[in-house]
Design goal:
By secondary structure, the chain is of the alpha+beta class. The longest helix has 17 residues. The protein is globular. It starts with a helix and ends in a 17-residue tail after the last strand.
Length: 279
Amino acid sequence: MFMHLLYAEESLRFFLSELVDMCIVHRDIPNSCSNTTIVPICKNKNGNMSDTSNYRPVAVASVVSKLLEHFILSSISPFLGTTGNQFGFKAGHSTDQCTFLLKQTASCFVTHGSSVHAVFLDASKSFDRVLHMDLFEKQIQRKVPMCFVRLLKHWYKEQKRQIKWGKHFSEPFHVSNGVRQGVVLSPYLFAVYLNDLSKESKSIRAGCYIGEVLLNHLMLADDICVFCPSVSWLQRILDVCQAYAKSHGIIFNCNNTVCMTFKAKSAKSTVTPLLTRGW
């Protein structure tokens, strides 16, 4: 469908430009742009077909809405920066770089006789748990132009979704939390939503120091790794994560949370248990 827009007559580009301008000026969008269709895709056809966890929801949004989001993203991207600890949704960053940095940091400390204790956190369905008012407040704090904040606020307020099952569609329903699925802006908005957690973790000033550089956490979208040579200080960082999650509607999945120690040969074998109450 994007190809149809790309190779359409010049007059269509004019009308699309007018549509985008009107959406921004009047803080309103067509209903067809705010609605999203959710198509459940079975993960394991040999598994339990009646188990909801065996399905992956795939969101389908209109092409025009994605075009509008591309324009908004190009306009507000300078305001959506994140800390250097976030490797998700950033140009020139990748999973391999994040993994390499963790391995090299741990290797440096182990080589010098210090163990590094790490906890890998998984935020359960975190994209669906974003609190809208907190998300817009963070945009205002970053001085995102208010015309875009108002448009996005209206967009999220009026958005509707419906489920497609075969040839059948459910009744449209409103969504009161979470970033929109299957669209352009959502990953960047989610990174902004978690960015203050990164700042609070860095403010503890405890972790792995390499020269003047402090590393105590790494983030890849909603996957978070916190680490520290000291178990007691690592607990402090986890407490920060727990408090931030509670205030922002995020739930960490205990079943997918993993503790790991990069152990130096001279280190003792006993490790104080970490507390993850209420996760």
